[in-house]
Amino acid sequence: MRANVLKVLSLSFSILLVVGSLFFSPTQLKVFANETVVENVLPLTPKDETVYGILDNYGSVESVYVVNYFRVPVNGTYIDYGEYEYVENMTNTVKEIINGDEIKWTLNKNPEGFYYKGKMLSKELPWQVDIGYKLNGAKLLSKS
Q1: DSSP strands (E only) in 40-92
Q2: Which one of 9, 72, 115, 143 has the largest count of C-beta atoms within 10 Å of its C-beta?
Q3: 17, 53 in Cβ contact below 8 A?
Q4: CA–CA dist 67, 100 (Å, integer)
Q5: Are 143 and 83 within 8 A, CB to CB?
Q6: Which of 76, 77, 28, 34 is CA-nearest to residue 49?
Q7: CB of 61 within 8 A of CB of 125?
Q8: Model-level pTM?
Q9: What CA–CA distance (Å, rounded) separates 125 from 60?
């Protein structure tokens, strides 16, 4: 039975690892309404960021994705920062404007907030993960 469990684990798809969650960084999110920075909105627009690492069967990082969320209390231009291979709007059809590591979204007020995901250029995680397989004390390859 144990061998079957190990076999099922080793035949599974890439491991999805949630490596970070809910980083509140309101100072990194700029909000513009009528091209004027809305200072009093910043405390109301904390940014939540969840980082997902896609790992192979041995713990090597294949890719890193970030899902970002922020409140949209007023109509305006919202600016976030990150080094992404691509970004994808998960809330509506508004297209982003990317300039280097700056991502701009012109959004209408939305009580549900705004979500987008991005595939990071870097494949670095804040932890090193090493996955191994053993059966009766003997090391196995994940394909076994």
Answers
A1: 47-55, 61-72, 76-81, 84-89
A2: 72
A3: yes
A4: 19
A5: no
A6: 28
A7: yes
A8: 0.68
A9: 10
The answer to whether 29 and 105 are in contact (CB under 8 A) is: no
| C-alpha distances in Å from residue 40, one per residue of 8, 44, 78, 129 | 53, 8, 14, 42
Instruction: Convert the pLDDT of each residue in 18-77 to its tens digit.
Output: 333 333 333 345 665 544 444 444 455 678 899 999 999 888 899 999 999 988 888 888
- Describe the chain by its helix, strand, coil percentages, rounded to 5: 10, 50, 40
Across the beta sheet with 97-99, what order do the strands follow?
Answer: 36-37, 30-33, 76-81, 102-107, 97-99
Asked if 30 and 76 count as a contact pair (C-beta separation under 8 A), the reply is no
Please count the residues of the chain. Answer: 144
Q: In which element (H, E) is residue 10 found?
A: helix 2-10
Q: Which residue in the block uniquely carries the two structure tokens 């979500």?
A: 115
Tokens 């809330």 belong to 91
Per-residue pLDDT of 114-143, as tens digits, reads: 999 999 999 998 788 888 888 899 988 887
